[in-house]
Amino acid sequence: MRSLTLHLKILIAILVVLGISVTAYQIFVLGIPVTEDATDDLWNIDAKVEFVANPKDPVKIQMFVPPLSRDFVSLNESFISNNYGVSVNRTDGNRKVTWSARRAKGNQTLYYRLVLTKRYSGEKVKVKGPTFRDSIAVEGPEKIAAEALLAPIRQHSADVETFISEAIKRTNNLNDDNVKLLLAGDPSIPHKAKIVELLLSIAHVPVEKVHTIRLVADQPQTPELWLRSFNGNDWLYFNPETGEQGLPTDRLLWWTGDENLITVDGGKKAMVTFSLNNSEMNAIRLAKLTDENTDANFLEYSLYGLPLQTQQTFMIMVMIPIGVLVILILRNLIGLQTLGTFTPVLIALAFRETQLGFGIVLFTIITALGLSLRSYLEHLKLQMLPRLSVVLTFVVVLIAAISLFSHKLGLERGLSVALFPMVILTMTIERLSITWEERGANHALKVAIGTLFAASLAHLIMSVPELVYFVFTFPAILLILVGFMLAMGRYRGYRLTELVRFKAFLKADQ
């Protein structure tokens, strides 16, 4: 027994020391902030490339990736693929990644990931660009229409900036006969940009197409077209629909020119899907990272390196041990009676969508009706498996009915009742009914209330934003929790509720 106790103490000490050491290393050496106070945006961008490969041909996929202008700095960039060679080249101010494979078959998926933030350096990098271009050859009616449009543009402009803005506005005037002729029935934004480029080339004003991504989280993204021109000192950006100057701060330049975002040799049906996620990091630490031009190795020591959808899942998963710890304390130290350990935690997870008050009401209604059905089935003398099957089916029907009536009554929150695990509800009803039969209605009611109280408390603690951030950023803290749980496994002392039960003995001794 002594050797077992010593072994347990050593194991607990190792886990606690390891958890503290890894967390301290992340905080003091890597400089990861403990809280989200004083934060700045950290953008995670995933570009998912999907296509169908030809089984007998070599595959070569080329896609533009951001050149990272002076406004943004990359903290981490990765190319995720399976059995593909990867290379990145620079051409005409763009960056292009090339995935290649000798053989591939069927549906293929590749990922490009970029983690970036605003550049903190106050020093502006000098940029270069063309200030003159040759005219695009145009003949016949198109030339006459272009000259007719250029005359009022020259009259109503004073410099290159106003000249470009006026050209864009004139091109978007679909009531002008000259514009109709040049557009030739194609009023799409790319074609309008092509006409603007034609007009400006006649005036020897250089302009190029810019494709950007909007930095907005959790929204579908498609590249947005802009125009830009170099005035000798800086790039001027223009909206191709309104002519307004100035690229919004939430735009990330992805590539420039007329080429498509992606080209595939040896495949077909290529599609690129963008997924953006915005997180925050300590502003001071983030400024140091960008100024030092580091590759932000701290991302390798955290769950932030996972795919974005996986991150959101793990933000929930890492809080489950916290909920289990709450139940453990309530049961082993306080003496609260619940239906097991994991049932309250699963109910607490369901409360994330239903919210606490509405979730308690839904749980109470479903459980009460299920107990009523279970009591009725008991009179039919059914075996356990058929009985559970009937109760499970009843729970599904009841969930559907509640969702339907909630929708009809305008209570959209009731639609989230489907998030309650049906099997857990079924087993909860079964175990409560058995408890009712074996130990009486009062004890069953006490256990049900205890389960709801534990689930509610666990939900409140698991939903604290500061705690979610800390555990997700420093997952090694879970090792310390495991050490505490192991120590609780040897606790044999009184629970708080037992002090009330045995209060009479204390009075007898006095």
Structure description:
With 510 residues, the chain is of the alpha+beta class. The protein folds into 3 domains: 40-126 and 261-296, Immunoglobulin-like (Sandwich), CATH 2.60.40.2250; 140-256, Beta Polymerase, domain 2 (2-Layer Sandwich); 315-473, no CATH class. It has 17 helices and 12 strands. The chain has helices at residues 2-29, 140-155, 160-171, 177-183, 189-202, 283-291, 308-317, 320-334, 342-354, 356-379, 384-408, 422-439, 441-462, 465-473, 477-488, 496-501, 503-509; strands at 39-53, 59-65, 72-80, 85-91, 94-101, 106-118, 208-214, 224-230, 235-238, 251-256, 262-265, 267-282. A 4-stranded antiparallel β-sheet has the order 3-6-1-12. Strands 4-5-2-11 form a 4-stranded antiparallel β-sheet, with no helix packed on it. Strand 4 (85-91) and strand 5 form a beta hairpin. Helix 8 packs parallel to helix 15 (477-488). The longest helix is centred in the N-terminal third of the chain and has 28 residues, at 2-29. The radius of gyration is 32 Å and the shape is elongated. The relative contact order is 0.13.
Strand sequence of the main sheet, in spatial order? 3-6-1-12
How many helices? The count is 17
Uncertain regions spanning at least 5 consecutive residues: 291-299
- Judged by helices, strands and strand pairing, the structural class is alpha+beta
Instruction: Report helical residue fraction.
Output: 40-55%
Describe the main β-sheet briefly.
Answer: 4 strands, antiparallel
Q: Order of helices and strands, N to C?
A: HEEEEEEHHHHEEEEEEHHHHHHHHHHHH
User: Cα distance, first to last residue?
Assistant: 36 Å
Instruction: Give me the count of strands.
Output: 12
User: What best-fitting shape do the alpha-carbon axes yield?
Assistant: elongated
- How many structural domains? 3
Rg over CA atoms, rounded to whole Å, is: 32 Å
What is the beta-strand fraction?
15-25%
**Average pLDDT rating:** 80
Keywords: Membrane, Transmembrane, Transmembrane helix
Transmembrane segments: 6-28, 314-334, 354-373, 385-407, 413-432, 444-461, 467-487
Domain 7 transmembrane helices usually fused to an inactive transglutaminase: 260-505
Organism: Pseudomonas canadensis
